[in-house]
Amino acid sequence: QKEVEQDPGPLSVPEGAIVSLNCTYSNSAFQYFMWYRQYSRKGPELLMYTYSSGNKEDGRFTAQVDKSSKYISLFIRDSQPSDSATYLCAMTTSGSRLTFGEGTQLTVNP
Amino acid sequence: GAVVSQHPSWVICKSGTSVKIECRSLDFQATTMFWYRQFPKQSLMLMATSNEGSKATYEQGVEKDKFLINHASLTLSTLTVTSAHPEDSSFYICSARGGPFTNEQFFGPGTRLTVL
Question: Which residues of B touch A101 (CB under 8 A)?
Answer without folding.
Answer: 43
